[in-house]
Amino acid sequence: MIKLIILSLLFSYNSYCGGWNDGYIAGYCYNQISCITPVVPVCPIPTIQCSTGYQCGYERGFINGLNAR
User: How far is residue 32's CA from residue 54's CA, in Å, rounded to a whole number?
Assistant: First the structure.
C-alpha cells in the first residue's frame, strides 16, 4: 500500500514538472516572433495551495518564464 502511494506521488510530481517545463518555455517565449528556447530551471517543489498536477506546474512555470524574460 505504501509503495502504491509513493508511486502515485512520484507520478504526480513528474506530471507537475512536465507542466513546469512546458509553461516556463511558453511564458519565456510569450509574444515573441522568434524565440530561442531557454534552459529551464529545475522544477520547484509544489506549494501547498497547488496540487501536483500538470496544469498547476504549467501555470507556475508560465509566470516564472514571463518574469525571467
Answer: 24
